[in-house]
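hiii, so i know i said id send this last week but things got crazy w the move. better late than never?? heres the sequnce for the chain we talked about at the cafe, plus the structure i predicted for it. fair warning i was half asleep when i ran it
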Amino acid sequence: MTDHPSPVSLREITFATVRQFLDLDVAEHQRSSVASNARSIAEAHFNPGAWLRGIYRGDTPVGLILLLNPAIPGALSRSPMTDGDVALWRFMLDLRHQKHGYGKHALDLARSEIRRWSNVKRLMSSYVPGEHGPEQFYLRYGFQKTGGTRANGGEIEIWMTP
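okay and structure toks below
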């Protein structure tokens, strides 16, 4: 079996590229369950534990991914986390770039990065349940439900080993 290069890459969002990420959007029915990129970028900027990357297909921005590593000094989390946990805090793909496998490949790359970090045992996340939600994507990818929900709106908690 031959490894094929990923169709996407993860790169830092810079002053030169930030506007391109602010212009990305999800479908109307997804807006209630996905934070805006402006909010994600702003919160990442003020949180030392944040690892924010733009998702690119070639040179075209197609989404963003934001991880939270609470082991980094000064990291801020709104949810309690266990030692060894890293959070998939935000994850979005522009509506024009969904259903092409880019999300799976972006998560693969993020997990490769997480494996370089010390003492990480679990990748935690949550999602808003609903008809057009990401539940099937996450479960197909390998996340498992914890059985818990987050207090901020009933998001379903999920986890996987990195």
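btw The chain has a mean pLDDT of 92. thought thatd interest u
miss u guys!!
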